[in-house]
Each structure stands twice: as structure tokens, then as C-alpha cells.
Amino acid sequence: MEITSICVLGGSGFVGRHVCHQLAARGYRVRVPARDRERAKQLILLPTVDVVSANVHDPHALKDVMVGSDAVINLIGVLHDGRGQGSFAASHVELARKVVAACRENGIRRLLHMSALHAAPAAPSAYLRSKGEAEAIARDSGLDVSVFRPSVIFGPDDSFLNLFATLLKVFPVMFLGSPGARFQPVFVEDVAAVILRSLEDRSSAGKSYDL
Fold it and tell me: pLDDT per residue over 67-105, tens digit each?
């Protein structure tokens, strides 16, 4: 089946904006649900992107926003465990179940799922455990799933490395909680390019990619 229309969950976020720009540049029709359309105002200007108001945590709204899509890309995630819909359990685990259910109800076979490097149900942090649970839900869904497991993602508008850059401009000395920690950061445009390539490569279904 030819894929021409994609629903991007988390399309107004850091990675999502880059994914949507690359999809639009290739001529795909893209639908982006957002609770706050103001956050997605730069996407509204893209000719093939439709930003719609929707709360994806609502199963009925999620099902409706996927209608007519050939594939779904789930990029939603939170870095800090909050309350309600902002918790790891709601944003990662429960949402993964809702996404799989909505795909099935709409007859959508293709699902691309964003996880995290070293995610696993028995991982040492709550973040990685929740990501691991969500990844397992997606992989075991019976859908044509590709999983992406990036390390720290950097780019012009990231909220991680740019934070340290800002602090270094303000303070002459910066104390680190884990000075021996090592990262293998990956550029956001490269992450978006891998997702796009996987979308167009049927053989990527059933595979996981460490980025």
C-alpha cells in the first residue's frame, strides 16, 4: 500500500517539527494534532500540513484524528515525570496502548514509534523503564512497527545542550552532578531523516534502530 498521508503525534515538539518539515518537503500530506495550535504555528504555514486541535490522550479524539491516514508516527514523550497526562505512565505507556488501539480501529498497519537508547522494562531509571514498556507494547501489537531509540538529540532549538551552553555564558564555573557521564548525541535532522527513510522502506518494519 502506498503511503501518502501521515498522522504525526507530537508533531509540534522539538523532533516533530523537523520530521514534519521533511515530510512536507517530500510532498506527504501530514496531520498534526495539538492541544495548543499556537505552539504549532510554524507548521501551519507548510502547504501539506494540517494542524488540528485535539487531545491525543482522549481515545475518541485520537481515533478521529487518525481517520484517513496511511501511517502514524508517535513522537510524544516527556523528560520529567509529572502528574496526570504529563506522567511517564500516561505519556509513554498508556498512550502507546491508545495509539495501537486507534491504529487497529482505523485499519492502519504502519506505525513508527520513538523510544530511547537503553530503554527496557528493567532499566535503572523510571524514564527508561516507561519507554521500554511503551516500546514493547508497540512491537508486540502485530502492526508493521519500526522503533527508533535515539541518544540525546541536539539541534538549534533543543532544551538540553542549549541549556548548558546558556549556563556557561552566565557562570564562570558550572558544577555537574555526573561529571563522568558520557553521551553520544545525535543531530535532530539526522533523526528526522532516518524516520523518513524508514517510512519509505517496507523492510524496516519489525526492526529497531539505535540512533
Answer: 999 999 999 999 899 999 999 999 999 999 999 999 999
Q: What is the pLDDT of residues 113-131, one digit of tens each?
A: 999 999 999 999 999 999 9
Task: Summarize the confidence of residues 153-178 as an average pLDDT.
Answer: 68
Domains of the chain, each with CATH number or no CATH: 5-153+187-210 (3.40.50.720)
| Owner of C-alpha cell 482522549 | 58
Three-class HEC string of the chain: CCCCEEEEECCCCHHHHHHHHHHHHCCCEEEEEECCHHHHHHHHCCCCEEEEECCCCCHHHHHHHHCCCCEEEECCCCCCCCCHHHCHHHHHHHHHHHHHHHHHHHCCCEEEEECCCCCCCCCCCHHHHHHHHHHHHHHCCCCEEEEEECCCEECCCCCCHHHHHHHHHHCCCCCCCCCCCCCCCEEHHHHHHHHHHHHHCHHHCCCEEEC
